[in-house]
Write a structure and sequence with these properties.
Length: 78
């Protein structure tokens, strides 16, 4: 049983995960409001330097599958 989404944004979009990374930043995966395709934002806010630097990937389902497959290979390699 899944506990996702973990919460919703103020605009009602699901947040699928958020956590503090090993490299001084916060990661958040949230559904995008993109109208023509189902997408998510993979956001990274780096706190190592001031001001906070924000980076984000905007990916569709096929791109997300590629990321998941690559991460599964990484996990299996341990």
């Amino acid at each position: 049983m899944s506990n996702l989404p973990i919460r919703y944004t103020s605009r009602g979009f699901p947040v699928f995960t958020e956590f503090h990374s090993k490299y001084n930043g916060d990661v958040c995966i949230v559904e995008s409001s993109f109208a023509t395709e189902h997408c998510v934002w993979i956001q990274f806010d780096e706190h190592a330097n001031e001001p906070i630097r924000r980076e984000a990937l905007h990916v569709n389902k096929e791109e997300a599958r590629k990321i998941v497959e690559a991460l599964q290979e990484f996990i299996k390699s341990e």
